[in-house]
Amino acid sequence: MIRRFFSYYRPYKGLFILDFSCAVIAGLLELGFPLAVNQFVDKLLPGKDWALIIWACLALLAVYALNTGLQYVVTYWGHMLGINIETDMRKKMFDHIQKLSFRFFDNTKTGHLMTRITNDLNEIGEIAHHGPEDVFIAVMTLVGAFLLMVSINWQLALLTFLVIPLMAWLAMHFSGKMTRTYRRLFGDLAEFNSRVEDTVGGIRVVKAFANEEHEKGLFSVNNFRYRETKLMAYKIMAKSMSLTYMFMRFVSLFVMVCGTWFVIHGELTYGQFVAFLLLTNVFFRPIEKINAVIESYPKGIAGFKRYVEILDTQPDVTDAPNAIEVDRLRGNIRYNAVSFGYEADKNIISRIDLSISAGETIAFVGPSGAGKTTLCSLLPRFYDCTQGGISIDGTDIRHMTLSSLRRQIGIVQQDVFLFSGSIRENIAYGKLDATDEQIWDAARRAQLEPFIRSQPGGMDTIIGERGVKLSGGQKQRLAIARMFLKNPPILILDEATSALDTETEAAIQQSLAELSQGRTTLVIAHRLATIKNADRIIVVTDQGIAEQGRHQELVSSGGIYSRLHKAQFGT
Ligand SMILES: Nc1ncnc2c1ncn2[C@@H]1O[C@H](COP(=O)(O)OP(=O)(O)OP(=O)(O)O)[C@@H](O)[C@H]1O
Questions:
Q1: Residue 178 · residue 233 · CB < 8 Å
Q2: Residue 231 sits in which domain range?
Q3: Is residue 320 part of a domain?
Q4: Fewer beta carbons below 10 Å: N end or C end of the chain?
Q5: Which residues are listed as membrane-spanning (predicted)?
Q6: pLDDT above 80 for 407
Q7: What is the pTM for the complete model shown?
Q8: What CATH number does the domain containing 495 carry?
Q9: Phi/psi class of residue 331: alpha, beta or left (left: φ > 0; alpha: ψ in -120 to 50)?
Q10: Which ipTM value was assigned to this complex?
Q11: Is residue 309 scored above 60 in pLDDT?
């Protein structure tokens, strides 16, 4: 874990060396100050040589000025080092999340991921900056102060050193407890964020069911649990800090009493006594620093462990080592004895064989939950089949790179997802480098132009989170426009026109028919009226493919399709 943590310093070696050296020099200067006081009291004061005293003061002033500069570097550049590392970690995590497969997202709450990428890494920057530096300087200052104390009076020095084993015991005792508590705290915070995300995301459902009180109750439970864990962390911190304070003050008092005894018996000069007391403070300061590191360390390490958990999660759908980048495919699709299940021991699809010719329009119909959507989501490799394989134009899709495969396939989903932004940005998502003209053309073909022109902001109208300011039909048309722009050889239309009124639907059907020209199109539909003209209709049940043929053939065959047809049209 520690080696992994330090690997993030690699790109910032220069910054680290600068910050570290400045911090070490500043630490050494701090150490020298009590010695200067010792000389001042024992040598300069009795000599009463004002010129020398002024020179000494000027020298001290120069040292202070140097120290001020060093402090600036340590505070600014040192924190820059920490922030750079924190930023790199966030980037690495975000990049990794982009690589993870659908299965991961199926089982992970958005709020949990948000917490990991935001809150959990908050302390890392501080640890990255202060951790190694503070510990090194603290140890250096401790050893330096101890040696100087020994040079003044070894008996007193040994008494002061008594505090070290006590502190080490305290640190060990509390740091494990703190790490565990912070891990729990981050878990609670993730739950808490998920709750907020769920309630705010589903606020329309909450209000429609008038379930605000129920949501408040659930929120309070999470809120209270978070409070309890946080209080537990503070309790541990309070115990650790007060015990440290007590031990340090106790030893300090002891040193003062013993030091007075040594002065009275002539074994210590006044100057040495003052220097010793100052050194005691120098000696205690690093202990306080180490204590501070010990306090923030569990937070950082708990966050880092949760971060590493995500980085260690491997995507289950990846590019094969020798995967090829495919250019525009023609779209001959073949499902070859394909089986798949979301859970290991439960197949949703079993040994499906299916050939689709380039340019053909295939419609999947069948009872809800039979696996129509699942069958289609195996094509862009959202999931990999557990047995069998799928090929396009004779090449197994697992031998193509994921990005080049997915560029070939356009999907308009049942539940359209739009990004909060403008209409333009959402359409252009289909082709990030699209020109204005291409975007307008796509909008026109998706029958979206009149709506866009009627908006005061035109193409730049902001559509709200997930397109909340648009009607269901407008959202659907926007998603279709995106597809016109992407212009893939293979299309998957999952109830693409379900949210449109009859008139617009007819218009869009026309546009889709135009878009389908020369492309392989897989339509998942429940309303049979929309697929009458499909080249082939495939009836999927949980037993597999039950029937296939053209609309008229299936209606007259008296099978499942004809029953569905009767149920929908009554004839
Ligand atoms: N991500 C998932 N994780 C686990 N099970 C899933 C997942 N998605 C779907 N399922 C299950 O797989 C089965 C098939 O679902 P699928 O969405 O493919 O059916 P469908 O035929 O398209 O249904 P509908 O017509 O209602 O959309 C269902 O029993 C469903 O509960």
A1: yes
A2: 2-311
A3: no
A4: C
A5: 12-33, 53-74, 158-176, 243-264
A6: yes
A7: 0.76
A8: 3.40.50.300
A9: left
A10: 0.95
A11: yes
Number of domains, the chain: 2
Which one of 107, 348, 411, 522 would you pick to mutate in the ligand 1 pocket, going by the greatest count of ligand atoms within 8 A of its CB? 348
Distance 401 CA to ligand 1 centre (A): 26
CA dihedral defined by 107, 111, 113, 119, rounded to 10 degrees? -150
| 44 shares a domain with 8 | yes
pLDDT attached to residue 529: 73
Q: Could you read off the pLDDT of 190-248 as tens digits, one per residue?
A: 888 888 888 887 787 787 777 888 888 888 888 888 899 889 988 988 888 888 888 87
Share of the chain above pLDDT 90, in %: 21
Task: Point out the domain boundary residue: 252, 276, 311.
Answer: 311
Kindly state whether residue 400 falls inside one of the protein's structural domains. yes
Give the Cβ contact number of residue 549 at 10 Å.
16
- Rounded CA-CA distance 169/167 in Å is 5
For residue range 408-455, list pLDDT tens digits in order.
999 887 778 888 889 999 999 888 888 999 999 999 888 888 889 998
Query: Which residue is closest in CA terms to ligand 1's atom 5?
Result: 342
> Could you tell me if 426 and 508 lie in one domain?
yes
With CA atoms as reference, report the closest residue to 115 among 44, 190, 62. Answer: 190
Residue 75 in tokens: 């505070």
Residues with a CB atom less than 6 Å from ligand 1: 106, 342, 348, 368-374
Report the nearest-CA residue for atom 4 of ligand 1. 342
Reported as a single tens digit per residue, the pLDDT across 327-361 is 888 889 999 999 999 988 888 888 889 999 999 99
Q: Where are the alpha helices (DSSP H) in 100-162?
A: 102-106, 110-117, 124-152, 154-161
| 490 beta partners | 409, 520
Residues 424 and 528 in one domain: yes
CATH number (domain holding residue 222): 1.20.1560.10
Is residue 299 domain-shared with residue 365, that is, in the same domain?
no
Same domain, 113 and 59: yes
User: Do both 173 and 122 map to the same domain?
Assistant: yes
Which mutation among 101, 316, 349, 374 tests ligand 1's pocket best, with the greatest number of atoms within 8 A of CB? Answer: 374
pLDDT digits (tens, 9 = 90+) for 67-93: 899 888 888 888 888 889 989 999 999
Check: CB of residue 565 under 8 Å from CB of residue 363: no
Q: Give the residue whose CA is nearest to atom 1 of ligand 1.
A: 106
In a domain, 178, yes or no: yes
Is 388 inside a domain boundary? yes
Residue-wise burial string across 43-61, b where 16 or more C-beta atoms lie within 10 A, e elsewhere:
ebeeeeeeeeeeebeeeee
Check whether residue 284 and residue 431 sit in a common domain. Answer: no
In this structure, how many other beta carbons lie within 10 angstroms of the beta carbon of residue 260? 12
Cα 526 to averaged position of ligand 1 atoms, centre (Å)? 14
CA distance 148 to 155: 12
282 and 379: one domain? Answer: no
